[in-house]
Amino acid sequence: MRTHERVLARIEADLAAGRWAVGERLPGERAMAEELGVSRPSVREALRVLEAMGIVRTAVGSGPDSGATVVDHPAAGLGSAVRLHLASGALPVHDVVELRALLETWAVSSAARRTPAPSFDDAEALLDQMDAPGTSVEEFLELDTAFHVALAAASGNVLVEAVMLGLRGAIGAYVAEGTARLADWPATAARLRSEHREVLRAVREGAAAEAGAAVAAHIDGFYREAGLERPDDAGDAAGAVRPDGPGPADGVSARP
Q1: What pTM did the predictor assign?
Q2: How confident is the model over 45-65, as pLDDT tens digits?
Q3: pLDDT tens-digit profile of 139-187?
C-alpha cells in the first residue's frame, strides 16, 4: 500500500467511527502527518483524492475556512469518473442509457408510492420553463436533465439521487450528441415535452407502474430516434427493462 493510500484508509476509518462529521475540519497537514508518521506531501495527495471524490473541500490560507472540511457531495467523484470513462470509450453509451432507465423507472415508481406524497412543484416549474417561447436547445437540454434528477430526488433515496447527479454529465453528453443528429428538433422537443407531462401526471396520481413504463419508453424513444443504438440493439427487445426491474418488457433493451 502506498503512503497516501495509508492516509486515505485512516481517514476513512475515522469517518466511519464518527470522529469527524459533515462540516467539520480535518486536522492540518502537519498534524496529520505527525500523527500518522508520514510526509506532508503524502497527506496532501490523499486530500486531493478525497476532494476529487467529493468527500472534502480544501481551501488555502490560515483563516477559519482554510484546510480540509468534510462535505456531503457523493456525486462529485462518480460524475468525474463516468465522464472520463465515457470520453475514453471504455464506457459504452448504451450502458449509460440502460443504467439510467433502471434508476429512473425505479425512482418514479417509488416516488408515486410515497406516503405522504413529495412535492413536485420544482419538477413542474422546470417543465414550465421548457415550454417558454424562445428556449434554446442548450437551455432545453439543461432543464430536461434537471427534471429527471428532480424525479430521482422525489424517490426519497439519497443514493439514487447521488448516482443520477453523478451521471448528469454523461447523460447530457449523449443527449447533446443525439440532438445534433435529429432531422426535426422542434417536433422532437414537442414530443419530449408531452412525455414529461405524462410521466409527472402518473407520478402525481400515484400510478407507479404507468409512471415507470412512461419514463422507460421516454428514455428509449429518444435513444433510438437519435440513432444512438448499436447495430445489435434492434433485436434486444426480449431483454428490455421493466419499471420494477430487469426482464422482458417494453423499455430500454438490455445488453446481451
Answers
A1: 0.70
A2: 999 888 888 888 888 766 666
A3: 999 999 999 999 999 999 988 888 888 788 888 888 999 999 999 999 9
Quick one: fold of 75-246?
Four Helix Bundle (Hemerythrin (Met), subunit A) (1.20.120)
Q: Is the sign of the CA dihedral 152, 154, 160, 161 positive or negative?
A: positive
What is the Cα–Cα distance from 230 to 205, expressed in whole angstroms? 36
Helix (H) or strand (E) holding 245: strand 245-246
Q: Do 213 and 250 meet the contact criterion of CB atoms below 8 Å apart? A: yes
Q: At the top level of CATH, which class does the domain 3-70 belong to?
A: mainly alpha
Give me the residue spans of the domains in the chain: 3-70, 75-246
Q: What gap in Å lies between CA 158 and CA 160, rounded to an integer?
A: 6
